[in-house]
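User: Teach me something about this protein's shape.
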Amino acid sequence: MANSVPTERQVLRCIFDMYEGDFPVEGPSVGKTMIAIDIDAVAKSLGCDKNILFGYLYYHLDNKYRYKTGENTSVHLFVPRAGELRHAINLPYLTAVLAAQEQEHSKFTWSLGVSLVALALSVGAIIAQLVTAR
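Assistant: First, the predicted structure itself:
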């Protein structure tokens, strides 16, 4: 049994990579934003348990990103059933959330890189002072 716990960004990226070709939906579902995903296949790709993945999508991510659009209407990231679709993801919304995640990750990576360069320069300056002080 798989035992890794993927990050939010890894889950969103995996689903996007696996299903971006399925959008836009053709046929009678034109204009719909929800597409069915194969929880088993996504879990296998991520190396995690399918039940953990379902719970993560349904109880955590959908709850985190769901927002109300009216008194009795909401936009969902993930729903167990949408009409005839089972395990449906709102791919355009997932794409927007993933883009924000990627931007944050990029900022963090750049900040970390700049900090490491600054640390290396500081250490180099300290070593240079110690060597020249002798």
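Now, about its shape. Residues 91-132 form the longest helix (42 residues). The beta strands are 34-36, 67-68, 74-75, 78-82, 85-90. If you'd like, I can walk through any region in more detail.
User: That's plenty for now, thanks!
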